[in-house]
Write a structure and sequence with these properties.
With 303 residues, this protein is of the alpha/beta class. It has one domain: Ribokinase (UDP-N-acetylmuramoyl-L-alanine:D-glutamate ligase, 3-Layer(aba) Sandwich). It contains eleven helices and 13 strands. The strands form two sheets. The chain has a nine-stranded mixed sheet with strand order 5-4-1-8-9-10-11-12-13, with helices on both faces. Helix 2 links the parallel strand 4 and strand 5. The longest helix has 18 residues. Bound molecules: adenosine monophosphate.
């Protein structure tokens, strides 16, 4: 079991879906990621929050054993995101993004963190992702990155620079098309691979996840759920399961990468069953094992 470092956002999210509405609940890319990955390995989180960040949120992560020494409290307000979904839960509309303390955030890694064998650059300013990568003293065994339309549009050059240096990218389908300027998803995945990452994982919400690794495709459907309340954080939770599983393996080969995509899908399938991290906070390791087995049945095919 190797240590997994994540740098990303910790947020207060306000979300509306056809099934309910929540205001200023715990969210953020690094939050969902670390909570999810904590079921597999030791996670260390580097992020910033404002002075208004509620103490119980911090405790929630600590209770899962997430190391929060790198979570700095800065003067000002916590990052806020406001999103809305219609009946098509694959389509989110960002109503507001208030960077607040994230605008001035300059992550500085302590000596121990600079040698982390696994690194996830969660959705955050690509310039900061680059800064973090430059601070690593030894090349990690695996570096993965996530991003979104906000940065693809806002910081395209920095994003291209950091992409050239990572092993894996996790990205949703719409954003993959946007990043590659290519409507066909297969071609888009190939185009993104040519920008740097050897492995491209395209998250397709209720349509599953597609991985392109060394010119070979692998596809996993989403777990069939009859109650999906809020897809927020599904992508980061997926990445947490994916990276967390890999960090716990001695060997990272093709079959391990495929199992990691399934573990990612398992974790994401829980997150969407409730708002914020609510469903994850009730999760037991046995639930993960059961759903992994259910996935296995779902996709099994006799030769
Ligand atoms: P996802 O897993 O893609 O649904 O990510 C949802 C999380 O991303 C939310 O909890 C937000 O707080 C966070 N988020 C939204 N916009 C940004 C942004 N521009 N930078 C960093 N994090 C963001």
């Amino acid at each position: 079991m190797a240590e997994l470092l994540v740098v990303g956002s910790v947020a207060l999210d306000s979300v509306e879906t056809p099934f309910g509405k929540v205001r200023e609940v715990l969210g953020g890319s690094a939050t969902y990621f670390s909570y999810s990955a904590s079921f597999f390995t030791q996670v260390r989180l580097v992020a910033t929050v404002g002075e208004d960040f509620p103490e119980p949120h911090r405790r929630l992560l600590e209770d899962r054993g997430v190391d929060l020494h790198g979570l700095q409290t800065s003067k000002g307000k916590t990052f806020r995101w406001v999103g809305q979904y219609g009946y098509d839960l694959n389509e989110v509309k960002t109503l507001d993004t208030q960077l607040n303390v994230l605008a001035e955030f300059r992550p500085t890694l302590g000596e121990a963190l600079r040698r982390s064998p696994f690194l996830f650059l969660a959705n955050i300013d690509p310039q900061l992702q680059l800064d973090v990568l430059r601070q690593m003293k030894e090349p990690p065994r695996l570096v993965a990155l996530d991003t979104m339309n906000f940065w693809i549009q806002g910081k395209p050059e920095a994003l291209r620079r950091v992409l050239a240096k990572v092993d894996v990218i996790t990205i949703n389908d719409g954003e993959a098309r946007q990043l590659a300027s290519e409507p066909n998803l297969i071609r888009a995945a190939r185009a993104i691979a040519s920008m740097g990452p050897r492995t491209v994982v395209v998250k397709r919400g209720e349509y599953g996840a597609l991985m392109l690794a060394d010119d070979t495709f692998f596809f996993v459907p989403a777990y069939p759920l009859d109650s999906v309340y809020d897809p927020t954080g599904a992508g980061d939770t997926f990445a947490g399961g994916f990276m967390g599983y890999l960090a716990a393996q001695d060997r990272i080969d093709g079959p391990a990468m495929r199992r990691a995509v399934v573990y990612g899908s398992v974790m994401a399938s829980f997150t969407v069953e409730d708002f914020s991290l609510t469903r994850l906070t009730r999760l037991k390791p046995a639930d993960i094992a059961d759903r992994y087995a259910a996935f296995h049945d779902l996709i099994r095919l006799e030769p």
